[in-house]
UniProtKB/TrEMBL annotation:
Domain MRNA cap 0 methyltransferase, chain residue ranges per copy: 795-1012
Enzyme class, spelled out: transferase
Record-listed E.C. numbers: 2.1.1.56
SUPFAM superfamilies, A to Z: S-adenosyl-L-methionine-dependent methyltransferases (SSF53335)
Keyword Transcription regulation: no
Name the UniProt record assigns to this protein: mRNA (guanine-N(7))-methyltransferase
Example of a GO cellular component annotation carried by this entry: nucleus
A GO molecular-function descriptor: RNA binding
Catalysed transformations (reactions): a 5'-end (5'-triphosphoguanosine)-ribonucleoside in mRNA + S-adenosyl-L-methionine = a 5'-end (N(7)-methyl 5'-triphosphoguanosine)-ribonucleoside in mRNA + S-adenosyl-L-homocysteine
Pfam families reported in the protein's UniProt record: mRNA_G-N7_MeTrfase (PF03291)
Keyword S-adenosyl-L-methionine applies: yes
Keywords of this entry: Methyltransferase, mRNA capping, mRNA processing, RNA-binding, S-adenosyl-L-methionine, Transferase
Length: 1012
């Protein structure tokens, strides 16, 4: 009878072939899914052994001849389609194949079948890409050729083959850790370890991750179930809950404390030995066996007490399970906030089998497993990690003790360049030699090597440790015994690729170099000929590459400021002191490292205190922002500020979330926030109140100002040592002097004539600087003035104008020898006395009047006048003399410097409507006068009129006061002069005018009364 399971091999006779024939290999396909789940039920119908697998056709024979060519064709059919993406495989689902020297059939002597079922063997875990989409078929094909040649002629091997599995499957098709194995079945246990030597294994064209001895190797690898599932509990409550309904087959208790690195990893190593012994302990694997690993000690709740991150312990166990074709069925915690890192694991991995006080039956029913490649924790992507060897792990622990948890050592902090720190940065740049590099965005890590050049890493923030492949960019040989400070950042070429940028070196070839100046330390790094970050922008086949940062001197910094790709992971520039020793720069009081962030790239981290709905828009929500109070180390609202965001863009933002917000400003310097990224609680460090406040309320430093800082050394005053670009070279001393030193030595910038660094002195009252020439000008008068000339009044002038015109002429003659009159401002000019100023030989004249007809008439008169000096400049403008913006907006545009004399011969009383307006006018006049300058004013003495009664009249003038009016400021009276209309005049108190003028540094030179 023909056996359907082995019809290609059973001859058409009633006599069965012998169980073993030399050089004949029978081919069987393992027709089970690569996604294996735990199944603890021990049912006769579902037993996991070779007869059961043959019956259910999970293991079945494949047609073909028994020659080498047919075997090769069979192997290629099963290996070449293999990919870490099941959707790309055209063939039906399969998890591998079995090659046996024994015919496996239910119709032959079952002794050989049961002998193979019980035979021990070796499981070889291959170090192939374990992430989704990794290329494995061609390397796997080459590795199989080497493996086949190694075991084919060894008759101790009864069967061998290939299997694969996918661990940690979730709703995402890109999830899961892909594991690939070779396996061999041996004659007896004594021969299993003698099959292969390390030298022979080096012939495999793929690195071997681990070799494990397993009892009953064929059922172990060919089963549709997970042979062993590990369940981990943290805390006594989780342990009690797990055991409340079911009891695991095996258990191990890690008696360790997570604040003790050596103790924790020693316990994990003991677990590893116990677990591997379990796999080689005469189990037949007829069902899934449960292994319970418990940690009774509580996870510390303070980050400073955590030496071993929670994920590192889980990852350690997960790597063992991956190597042994097993899995972690679930992890149970005593509480969601039972320690540092627990809440992060639960929130960032919602589909992962992480539980709180779960029972064993609850975990088994979920049929899940931990995905060691895609679980999110800290800032290190799991797919670039490699498992540790024990010696390499010990080196990583030593690096943590020496450079991270050591209180005598700290990494240099970057001091932000802002308006507040600008002066300190300029002084630092002027006194020391600095180099610049791009600010790299990412996770800060330590990268180290052992004496053989094997790589390890430590995430500084979480203390998570990991191993790396040999991925130094451009280096052909191994780099032994070094420890570097680096940043892990994503490569913009691919989402799965990363670059590690070396920033500094702490240990070089076994020697501590932290006391060496930075320039010499960095020379060590450059001597290794590692490619720099600009020459290799993408990663390698290992998805990670190590490059060195590019440090440039100031004269080449323009290359770093050139435009970068929008997705390039840099943000500004970092300036390092190349002459400072790292041991000094690591002290808290020294700040030798500076960071410049472009204004458009400033982002800060906040904690969300709560989210609220936005009125009339159900698509937008508002998150209230919190920062860390540096004094209490607690969260506090930041000035009631918030950020609005689209719910569809950030659906997971809630109370306690960490958000990175971009600081945005408009042209009026108003600011708001935009969310860049959202993180789970504790995933990022929240900015302090002072950090946020400094960026919000201090204007950002522009690129142009950064370029100025690079030249700070050229602006160092050789007299006082200060940095100031407002200075010039002192030819006498042949050195650069700052602006302040020039002033201290009697030099300065004259505010009147504009000469810079001229010899002069400060005005005692205004503290303004004037040069010697201007001081001389202020103390001289017009000797060529035509004194005694009286400007004739206009032909139709009324008596008031006739009198004031004559009085003004006399007043100008009188003050000509007391104050300088070469530069005159005539307020409410009226046009009647401009000729007097011309006869006075005044060089510059500015008249202001609010009547455009008068202004036009004066301009015409000035233009046609023959009395004007050749170089004199006379101008008249139309403006409101008593408006608020007259001095700053109107006068400064046509006359930007001070006046020798300011006159107001008519309309002065308009400035005395009230005390406030009067003070503004007098103060403006005082500020607009040069030292020694004079103010000429003409007004009616209200005290004399008021003394003559409420009403007074004579043949020329009539005055009238209200009953409650007094001759004080804020009051007024009416006056009528012969031939003129009645007008209202504000009181100008003489004593008030003199008192206010004195406050502003003016004194009375002359006071004359004109009696009618």
């Amino acid at each position: 009878m023909l056996n359907v399971n082995a019809k290609a091999f059973v001859p058409p006779t009633e006599v069965a072939p012998p169980p073993f024939q030399e050089n004949i290999i029978y081919r069987y396909r393992i027709d089970t899914s690569i996604n294996k789940y735990p199944d603890v039920v021990k049912d006769v119908q579902r037993l996991n052994n070779i007869p059961s697998l043959l019956t259910t056709r999970r293991l079945f024979a494949v047609k073909g001849d028994l020659d080498e060519e047919s075997l090769r064709y069979f192997v290629e059919q099963n290996i070449l389609p293999v990919a870490n993406n099941p959707e790309n495989e055209n063939t039906s689902p399969s998890s591998g194949f079995l090659l046996s020297r024994t015919l496996l059939s239910l119709n032959v002597d079952m002794h050989s079948v049961f002998a193979l079922n019980d035979a021990p063997g070796l499981l070889v875990r291959l170090d192939f890409p374990k992430e989704f989409g990794g290329e494995v078929n061609m390397p796997l094909n080459y590795a199989w050729d080497a493996f086949y040649s190694l075991v084919n002629r060894d008759h101790r091997v009864t069967a061998f083959g290939y299997s694969r599995s996918r661990i940690g499957v979730s709703s995402s098709k890109e999830s899961g850790t892909y594991c690939h194995y070779f396996f061999v079945s041996c004659v007896d246990k004594k021969n299993d370890r003698a099959l292969f030597s390390p030298a022979e294994l080096s012939g495999l064209r793929a690195p071997v991750q681990r070799i494990v001895s397993v009892s009953s190797i064929v059922p172990f690898t060919c089963s549709y179930r997970t042979p062993v599932s590990v369940v981990i509990t943290f805390g006594k409550k989780a342990k009690e809950s797990l055991r409340s309904e079911m009891v695991a087959d095996f258990s191990f208790n890690c008696a360790c404390s997570f604040d003790n690195i050596e103790e924790t990893y020693e316990s994990l190593s003991l677990f590893e030995e116990s677990f591997l012994d379990t796999l080689n302990n005469n189990c037949k694997w007829e069902r899934t066996y449960i292994y319970h690993l418990s940690f009774d000690s509580d996870i510390p709740k303070e980050k400073s007490l955590v030496a071993v991150p929670i994920w590192d312990a889980i990852y350690f166990v997960g790597n063992i399970c991956d190597d042994c074709a097993c899995n972690i069925a679930g992890v149970s915690f005593s509480a969601s906030e039972s320690g540092v890192g627990v809440e992060q694991l639960l929130l960032r991995n919602k589909e992962a089998p992480f539980f709180v006080n779960a029972t064993l039956s609850d975990i088994m029913e979920k049929k899940l497993s931990v995905d060691t490649t895609n679980t999110l924790f800290g800032g290190i992507p799991q797919h670039i990690r490699r498992p540790f060897s024990r010696p390499l792990h010990q080196l990583a622990i030593r690096a943590i003790s020496a450079f991270i948890t050591n209180k005598d050592f700290s990494f240099p902090k970057e001091k932000s360049i802002t308006r507040k720190t600008f002066s300190d940065v300029a002084n630092a740049f002027s006194k020391s030699t600095y180099v610049a590099k791009k600010k790299c965005i990412g996770t800060q890590v330590l990268i180290g090597t052992d004496s053989y050049g094997n790589l390890f890493g430590v995430e500084i923030d979480t203390l998570s440790t990991f191993a790396l492949p040999d991925c130094f960019g451009g280096v052909a040989s191994r780099i032994p015994e070094c420890v570097f400070v680096a940043v892990l950042s994503p490569s913009y070429r691919n989402l799965m690729e990363y670059r590690i940028i070396l920033q500094d070196v702490l240990v070089f070839q076994g020697s501590d170099v932290t006391d060496t100046p930075f320039s010499e330390r960095w020379g060590y790094v450059e001597s290794l000929y590692i490619d720099d970050e600009d020459s290799w922008r993408h990663a390698s086949a290992d998805h990670v590459v190590i490059l060195r940062a590019r440090h440039v001197p100031f004269d080449k910094i323009q290359d770093l400021l050139s435009p970068l790709p929008s997705d390039h992971c840099t943000r500004g520039l970092v300036f390092l002191c190349s002459t400072e020793e790292i041991s000094d720069s690591h002290k808290a009081e020294t700040k030798q490292t500076f960071l410049w962030t472009p204004p458009e790239s400033i982002s800060l981290f906040f904690r969300v205190s709560k989210t609220v709905e936005v009125a009339d828009n159900d698509q937008v929500k508002k998150a209230l922002l919190e920062v860390v109070d540096a004094e209490t180390d607690k969260y506090a609202p930041y000035e009631d500020e918030y950020v609005e965001y689209y719910l569809s863009a950030f659906p997971d933002v809630k109370k306690g979330s960490i958000v990175e917000c971009l600081l945005c400003r408009d042209e009026n310097d108003a600011h708001w926030w935009d969310i860049l990224q959202a993180f789970s609680p504790d995933a990022k460090k929240v900015s302090t109140y002072n950090e946020v406040d400094e960026f919000v309320h201090s204007p950002s430093v522009t690129q142009k100002e950064v370029l100025w800082l690079l030249n700070a050394s050229s602006y160092v005053c050789e007299r006082c040592g200060r940095v100031n670009d407002k200075g010039m070279r002192n030819e006498r001393h042949n050195s650069y002097w700052c602006h302040f030193c020039w002033i201290e030595t009697g030099h300065g910038d004259c505010v009147y004539c504009g000469r810079t660094f001229a010899l002069g002195m400060l005005h005692e009252q205004s503290h303004l600087f004037y040069c010697e020439n201007c001081w001389t000008c202020f103390s001289t008068w017009n000797t060529e003035a035509e004194r005694g000339y009286h400007v004739p009044p206009p032909p139709n002038a009324k008596i008031t104008q006739q009198v004031t015109t004559r009085c003004i002429s006399l007043l100008i003659d009188m003050v000509n020898t007391k104050v300088p009159t070469n530069d005159v401002l005539d307020l409410c000019c009226g046009g009647s006395v401009v000729r007097k100023w011309m006869r006075n030989k005044t060089d510059r004249y500015l008249g202001i009047d609010n009547q455009s007809t008068i202004v036009d008439s004066m301009r015409e008169s000035i233009h046609s006048s023959k009395e004007l000096l050749p170089n004199a400049r006379y101008n008249v403008i139309c403006a409101d003399v008593f408006s608020k913006d007259l001095w700053m907006e109107t006068i400064t545009k046509v006359h930007p410097r001070q006046f020798h004399t300011i006159a107001c011969f008519s309309g002065l009383h308009h400035a005395f409507v009230n005390e406030e307006q009067a003070r503004i006018f007098v103060g403006s006049v005082a500020n607009a006068l040069v030292p020694g300058g004079g103010f000429l004013g003409l007004f009616i003495d209200a005290n004399i009129l008021h003394a003559r009664g409420k009403t007074f009249s004579n043949s020329i003038v009539q005055s009238k006061w209200e009953d409650s009016a007094v001759p004080r400021i804020g009051n007024h009276f009416t006056i009528t002069v012969e031939g003129e209309e009645e007008r209202e005049v504000n009181v100008v108190p003489m004593d008030f005018l003199i008192a206010v003028a004195t406050e502003y540094g003016m004194t009375v030179r002359e006071r004359r009364r004109v009696k009618h």
